[in-house]
Amino acid sequence: MLPAQPADPPIIPAGHRAGAMRKLPLRVGTRGSPLALWQTRHFLHRLSTFCPVLRTMNVFEEHAIRTTGDATQAAGTRLADIGGKGLFAKEIHEALADGRIDFAVHSLKDLETELPQGIVLACTMTREDARDALVLGGRCGPADPSDPYAALPAGALVASGSVRRQAQMLHARPDLRFTGIRGNVQSRLDKLAAGPADATLLAIAGLKRLGLAEHASLVLDSETMVPASCQGIVGITVRASDEELCQLLGGIEDPEAKAVATAERALLLELDGSCRTPIGGYARLLPDGRLHLTGLVARTDGSFLLKRSLHGDGKDAARLGTELGRSLRADSPADVFV
């Protein structure tokens, strides 16, 4: 947490306009991992750059909040075993609802599709590269973009707790073995270096943001490995009643990120999968303004995998996500969603 502010803090026009006044500091909630803190400070810099009033004052106070997901991560518990959805946001949103913080910064892929009552997603920041990176250990051969898994020896052990990544790799390479891995980005890299796993997968967005992109042996094409819905996007939540702050945050929202996030979250909501369900979703805007959305569902063991794409007007992002989700669910075995 940053140093405490004076007992009688200054005030600025709420919502960056004349009229109602807001006391400072503005309190921002976040997880305490290096990546979460980087994302929070990047967002605050962007907000300060946009709003000249904020640029002239020390107006922000960080609140690092330990979430259920962080606690289970430290204990080595798999997220899928305790539900998974929203575990990296629960305590943060409780602080938001209670008025202990004014807004919260999240990796949008960690947010549940249905937010708690009174909490809204007010802003989506410009998306970083959404793809997954393959990080190879010492027993692996050279990375080959034309055959991304060829570097892995027969029966290689891959460290990944993501059922989405596991299902897609096993569908292509049924000989692979998997073991769970938890922790922040650097700790996962350290665990791979220490063995015994031969490879791991990480979001290239996180590696780039932390200055660790050189650890990526190969960045996987989004068709080879369909990313998680909203991977690479930072989202900001606020109280729905805080209209002035919603208005201020709307000024820095990235319209393209909002469109693709809307489609991907609608897809995820329609599929209503748990952390045990391998689901991927990736949308992009085409030069003509149309939106291209790819969705994937699979069995964890890779024995079933269904991938489909849909095109449509970017203004219909939510409808496209819902439509593609219904199509995937209709043609998937019922056991996929258990």
**Poorly predicted runs:** 1-20
Total of helices = 10
Largest beta-sheet characterization:
5 strands, mixed
- The overall average pLDDT, rounded, is 88
Alpha carbon gap, first and last residue = 41 Å
Amount of helix: 25-40%
Write up this protein.
The chain has helices at residues 34-50, 52-55, 68-75, 90-97, 163-172, 185-194, 204-209, 243-250, 255-271, 317-330, and strands at 11-13, 21-23, 26-30, 60-64, 103-107, 119-124, 132-136, 157-159, 177-179, 199-203, 218-219, 234-239, 279-285, 290-298, 305-313. The two termini are 41 Å apart. The model is unreliable at 1-20 (pLDDT under 50). The protein contains ten helices and 15 strands. The chain is globular and about 60 Å long. β1 (11-13) and β2 form a beta hairpin. By secondary structure, it is an alpha/beta fold.
Keyphrases for this structure?
disordered N terminus; 30% helix; 338 residues; 15 strands; 10 helices; alpha/beta
Summarize the structure.
Helices cover 30% and strands 22% of the residues.
Topology:
Layout: E1 11-13, E2 21-23, E3 26-30, H1 34-50, H2 52-55, E4 60-64, H3 68-75, H4 90-97, E5 103-107, E6 119-124, E7 132-136, E8 157-159, H5 163-172, E9 177-179, H6 185-194, E10 199-203, H7 204-209, E11 218-219, E12 234-239, H8 243-250, H9 255-271, E13 279-285, E14 290-298, E15 305-313, H10 317-330
Parallel strand pairs: 3-4, 3-5, 8-9, 8-10
Antiparallel strand pairs: 1-2, 5-12, 6-12, 7-10, 7-11, 13-14, 14-15
Helix pairs in contact: 9-10
